[in-house]
Amino acid sequence: MANERKIDFLIFIACIILLGVAFFMQYIMGLSPCYLCITQRFFIAIIGLFSLLAFIHNRSPKIYGLIVTLSALVGGYFASKQLWLQSLPPEKIPSCGPPVNYLFDSFNVSEAIKILIQGDGNCAAVQWTFIGLSIPGWTLICFIAIATLSVLKIIRNNKTC
Known about the structure:
- The chain is mostly helical.
- It has one domain (3-89, 97-160): Bromodomain-like (Up-down Bundle), CATH 1.20.1550.10.
- The chain is 73% helix and 2% strand.
- Strands 1-2 form a two-stranded antiparallel ribbon.
- β1 and β2 (133-134) form a beta hairpin.
- α3 runs antiparallel to α6.
- It is elongated and about 55 Å long.
């Protein structure tokens, strides 16, 4: 197995673990995911899917690497946005929105997605920390690590072609 494929598999496993931890925190620990948490989960799932496809398919590694890198950067943006919301003073925090189920029941998909990616006051709540970092802080670190691995894989692949 080529090293590039090992990186794809490693990223896929990391995404499975990240999603597993997210669902553990939601269903076992009772933490409610906010809009931006759900958006970040979506990008972790996209990264995992394309990493698995890259591992299995093993063609067009640059394209898969680019998709993974861009998804990690966009996911990192949303993690950063949530960290920014968490840093706001209470009077600057936006109001809270309705539950996610309500969004998709009451709005068309594009409107619901717009609301999701904007975040709301629930996204400013720090529900859990580890070593001083909240969940989006750890998620941002993971997105940066994934983007870095993916870029290194693309660079390495360019040198071997």
